[in-house]
Design goal:
alpha/beta; Rossmann fold; six-stranded mixed β-sheet; about 45% helix
Length: about 120
């Protein structure tokens, strides 16, 4: 399953769900709005979800990074210098999703890759 954090606009997740009906979920499809990362990250690791988010601080916040490591989560962080439009988000995710899925299958978890505005990926964990 592809799990999209609420740091990515819901409309982007909804657009992806129109063409990937069985395997894309936005955070609030599964959890209440107020749910903290510390609740869903363990589930993501246990259930083997490919995680896409925009919250750049996840990689440096000790508690969240520790949860990623402890629970074997595979994360892709959209890492643009400026806030993208919804269309830019959608184009970026749509053009890099195949590569994300390939890396998710081939890379031992836990891991964090950043994804830049042109789709370049760099492993940071």
């Amino acid at each position: 399953m592809i799990f999209i954090d609420r740091s990515v606009p819901k409309s982007v997740a909804e657009a992806l769900k129109l063409v990937r009906t069985d395997d894309v979920r936005w955070l609030e499809d599964l959890y209440p709005h107020w749910t903290k990362d510390s609740v869903w990250l363990p589930h993501a690791g246990k259930d083997g979800w490919l995680v896409i988010l925009r919250d750049k601080k996840v990689r440096s916040r000790h508690g969240e990074r520790a949860l990623i490591e402890q629970h074997g989560v595979g994360c892709f962080i959209l890492n643009q210098k400026t806030n993208p439009t919804r269309w830019q988000y959608l184009k970026l995710v749509a053009t890099t999703l195949d590569e994300m899925e390939r890396r998710f299958e081939e890379t031992a978890r836990p891991f964090i890759f950043t994804v830049d505005s042109v789709g370049g990926m760099r492993r940071v964990l």
